[in-house]
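During the first year of the project, the team set up a workflow for recording each protein of interest as an amino acid sequence followed immediately by a discrete structure-token representation. This format lets reviewers and collaborators read both layers of information side by side without switching files. As required by the reporting guidelines, we include two representative entries from the current panel. The first entry is reproduced here exactly as it appears in our internal archive.
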Amino acid sequence: MTEEQRPAPREGLEELTYVDDRVSKLWVLLIIGVFAAIVAYGVLFGQAGLLTPQPTPSPTVSPTPVASPSPPASPSPAASPSPGASPTPDGSPTPAASPSPQASPSPQASPSP
């Protein structure tokens, strides 16, 4: 090729040069290696890691029941008669004691549509 056939260099564009920076390559490899080592340690040996032994449960001593004599059962007190059924001295009947209201069962929850 002659100079006349070669295209003229464009103005404003710089020619990119290749820089072989061995120190930068090693520095990046070192950082990646440290990061990988930290992650591997966390996964393998960290808390609940793959190679961390799980603590074995310590044996618990259950108390054995000791047979002890129980006190004799005492009789329950006798039921007293209801005061609502007795007449009053003036002869008018007294209203009977109303039983306590019982709790009504609450309606069961039905699933929402």
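The second entry, processed by the same pipeline in the following quarter, appears below.
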Amino acid sequence: MDRQELLDEYGEWAEELIDDYCSGDVDQAERFFDEFYCGKHEDLEDFAEGEIGQSGVYEIDNFIYQYIDWDRLARDLFISDYFYIKEGHYYHVFRNF
């Protein structure tokens, strides 16, 4: 896939991934989409809740679930485990490799 095909498929926001995270390497950007892309999200707190709270990886008791600060957890996740590219009011989330 060439640069324009990648942009046609994902949108102009993907240019930031290609240039800033993949040093212009379109093949690497395509690999990021295939292996690390976690989708488009309206806010990072909902992403954190879905990724951690409802993924099935962690068993969180319903009683404890209500006390989790999802905003704070989202901030911590994006310190090293994930990154995002903002497009308007959406966040395109990737796992760090």
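For the second entry, the following points were noted during internal review. DSSP finds six helices and three strands in the chain. Helices lie at 3-10, 14-21, 26-36, 44-53, 62-65, 70-80. Both points are flagged for discussion at the upcoming steering committee meeting.
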